[in-house]
Amino acid sequence: MRAQGGPLVVKADGLAAGKGVIVAADTEEALAAVDTIFEGQFGSAGSTVIVEEKLEGEEASFFALVDGHIALPLVGAQDHKAVGEGDRGPNTGGMGAYSPAAILDEAMSKRVMAEIVEPTVAAMAEEGRPFKGVLFAGLMIGADGPKLLEFNVRFGDPECQVLMARLRSDLLPALLASRSGDLAHFDLRWESRAALCVVMAAKGYPGAYEKGSEIRGLDAAAGLDDVKVFHAGTKDEDGRVIATGGRVLGVTALGDSIGAAQERAYAAVDSIDWPEGFCRRDIGWRAVAREKE
Ligand code: GLY
């Protein structure tokens, strides 16, 4: 780390709910970060530490269905991980997402497939461990093109909500084809319109929050055109919808542009009556600003 110098990223190598990453401005901060992790801030997730180059660029989420040998790219998305507007404050699992992601245009998606996804799928097959399922590449896209931050073997949350809003084909046959090794001639149809999802979370999230409050107005929200409210942390109690989690609802809308989808999603949010919940009011801000340019 001393030899490398400059800004570095220090990570706990285990699962730490997306929080085990410290971006250090210089060597001194990086060395302090290593001490913090080895002292147990992230529990056993921090028994091994990884030190990486700090990448500059824009984060994006790339998904492919894989059948062991063939990878079928899905549409791209971007999420907002920070809890606060302007992408400030502590990280969460994701406070909102949108698709398409301008930065993942056709040329960039081809590069991600050729440089990251296909070599990974081929290497796993070669090792005798062919991967089948959803491969989610968390990317940083900068001046040198796409760099891989992490792989997950699941859909993203809330990226999945915007993907499902845009998917025009039936998902189940695609998942079965991935399982049975039949993706070679498979194709998926996608909505050309944009989708945007606003996460409504319990006040206090990602810190301590209360469970058990009632959510009203869901029928009015779901009754709006091209709106779907996905439930993430609710339960039905005698016909009343009760919040049971941190991230509770994924209010998702389609529109002719990200801006139009954003407008519709917030109209749906505004018809939901849940004083104990909150959401960011700027989901999609970067994409909407780009559209205005
Ligand atoms: N939204 C990021 C994730 O699902 O990991």
Question: Can you lay out the helices and strands and say which pair or pack?
Answer:
Elements: E1 8-12, E2 21-24, H1 27-38, E3 49-53, E4 58-67, E5 71-73, E6 78-79, E7 82-84, E8 88-91, E9 96-99, H2 106-126, E10 132-142, E11 145-152, H3 159-166, H4 171-180, E12 194-202, E13 214-215, H5 218-222, E14 227-231, E15 234-237, E16 240-243, E17 247-255, H6 258-270, E18 277-278, H7 285-292
Antiparallel strand pairs: 1-2, 1-3, 4-5, 4-10, 6-9, 7-8, 9-12, 10-11, 12-17, 12-18, 13-16, 14-17, 15-16
The protein binds glycine.
The site of glycine (GLY) has 7 residues, from loops.
Key structural traits:
7 helices, binds glycine, 3 domains, D-amino Acid Aminotransferase, Chain A, domain 1, 4-stranded antiparallel β-sheet, alpha+beta, Glycinamide Ribonucleotide Synthetase, Chain A, domain 4, 293 residues, 6-stranded antiparallel β-sheet
Question: Kindly state the mean pLDDT as a whole number?
Answer: 96
Shape: globular
Q: Remind me, CATH topology of the largest domain? A: D-amino Acid Aminotransferase, Chain A, domain 1
Number of spatially distinct domains: 3
- Give the CA-CA distance, first to last residue: 41 Å
Largest sheet: 6 strands, antiparallel
Structural class category = alpha+beta
Report the strand count: 18
CATH architecture of the largest domain: 2-Layer Sandwich
CATH domain class name of the largest domain: Alpha Beta
Quick structural summary:
This protein has 293 residues and is α+β, with helices and mostly antiparallel strands.
Describe the structure in your own words:
- It is a single chain.
- The protein is an alpha+beta fold and 293 residues long.
- The chain folds into three domains: 8-53, no CATH class; 58-180, ATP-grasp fold, B domain (D-amino Acid Aminotransferase, Chain A, domain 1), CATH 3.30.470.20; 194-292, Phosphoribosylglycinamide synthetase, C-terminal domain (Glycinamide Ribonucleotide Synthetase, Chain A, domain 4, Alpha-Beta Complex), CATH 3.90.600.
- 26% of the residues lie in helices and 32% in strands.
- It is built from seven helices and 18 strands.
- Strand 15 (234-237) and strand 16 form a beta hairpin.
- The longest helix is centred in the middle third of the chain and has 21 residues, at 106-126.
- The mean pLDDT is 96.
- Bound molecules: glycine.
- Residues 79, 93-94, 152, 156-157, 159 line the site of glycine.
- The site of glycine has 7 residues, from loops.
